[in-house]
Amino acid sequence: MNDRAGNAFLLPGQGSQYVGMGSDLADSLPTVRQIYQRADELLDMPLSEICREGPEDRLRRTENAQPAILVHSYAIWRALPEKVRQGAAVAAGHSLGEFSAYLIADAIPFDDALRIVRRRGELMAKAGREQPGTMSAVIGLEADLVADVCRETAGTVVAANYNAPGQVVISGEVEAVATAGETLRKAGARRVIPLNVSGAFHSPLMEGARQELEAMLAGTEIADPVFPVVANVSAEPVTTGPRARELLVSQLTGAVRWSDGILQIGRLGISSFLEIGPGSVLTGLLRRIDKRMRGRAVGDLEALRALAAE
Fold it and tell me: Are residues 122 and 154 in the same domain?
C-alpha cells in the first residue's frame, strides 16, 4: 500500500450532525437530491426533511443522526470531482463513520449501508434505555492514566474513544462515569465534559446491541474494499470483507483508537486528508495527533465548489 499516492478520506461520526445539513447540496445538485430521495424511500421516513428542518432534538436521536451523517458523507463523496475520488488511497471513519468509509470503498452498497446504520442506531438507543449510561470527554491527561482510573473505578466505565493526545472519552454507567471523572479532575485533567448522548457507546453496556448487529451483518454481503479502511478497534488497514464484518461488530463494545489509526495512515506515507460529511471535527483532531498532517473539510456546497475549482 505504500506505493499508492493520494488522499486519506475521513468520515465523521455521531455528534457532527446539524440542522440544515446537506440542504444546499440537495438544492443545487441533482445527484445529491436523488440520494436523499432514495434514503427517504428506503427508510420509509422523511430523513431529508429531518436533516433540512430538524428540530435539533429529532435529528440528534441516535437512530436518525447515524443515517443522516452517512447519507451526507456519501452525497459529498458522489459530488466530488472524479479525479479526487480516484485519488483515494485509504479511508477511516469515526465510529458510525467507519460504515461510511466502507460505503465509499464499495464494500457495502448504499441501500444495505443505510439500512444497517439505521438499525444500528435503533439498537444503540434501545441499549441505552435498557442499561442507562453516559460518556464524558477528558481533556489534558495521558491516555494510559485515564484507562487506569477507569479500571480502578467501581462499576462499569472504560476509555472508549482515544481521539488525540490529551483527549480521551470515557463511557459506562452514569455513576461510574461521574466517579471516574471526579478522580480524573483531581489527577489534573483540564476539563471533564459530560456529553449529550443516549447511551454508553463503545462500552460493555452495548453488548445487547452488538449481538443483534452481529446477526444482521452475518446476512449482509460485504465485499473487499477497493482501498483499505483503517478500523477503529484495531487501528489496522482492512482489505477484506470478512475482516471488515468482524471489526464492525466488535466496534460497538470496543474502543475507538482514532489517534492510532491516523498515525497508521501516516506510516503508509500519506499526510493529506479530506474529511467528507458534516462538520470538521476530524480535521481539527489531525494537527493534535501529528502536526505534519494536512486536513481539509468538505461538508457543504461552498467547500465542494472551492475544491472543484482547484
Answer: no
